[in-house]
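Researcher: Go.
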Amino acid sequence: TTVTRQGMSVTFFPEGGHSISGVKGRMTIVVTNNSGVPLQASGYLVCRNDTMAAVQTEHEGMGRFTYLPQLGLPTSLHLTDSTGRHAIISMPEPEPIGVALKGDMSDARKARITVSTSIELQSTPLALIQTYRGAVYSVVPFVCDGKPLVLNCGREEMEEGVNRFAVIDADGNILADRQGF
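Model: Structure:
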């Protein structure tokens, strides 16, 4: 989703592809001007007059923050760019049902994958699939019980390059996916 206000365009990229109501997740943003030139910006996330998170772009207009989206509770991003221009941008509405997938590849020994589900998908059989160049490397069945589930994948078993992690349901539908290098 891209929203433009006051000469600032913000594109939202929820980690794992989905922002799920009631599930804490990471959101990456890219801030540009109307011509697509990256902007340095800082600000904060507001819901019901409460500040939920500080926001800062770090490189080429990109930044990220963690927050808890709630369906029906309008949340806005208040940004000021390096020229002093200020914009208030409404956050995209979260999905009511789904899976949030977070990947952490910072440990040289393991990839840490965190899976969180909405209430409706708790106790539902799911699986985490790891693929590399289209080939399936591992399938880990699991059930979430309301708490985030952390799965560790050994880096020595991973191929060098881009690996894809996807959460699927019993019918093989992809509910969330993420790539890690």
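Model: The radius of gyration is 18 Å.
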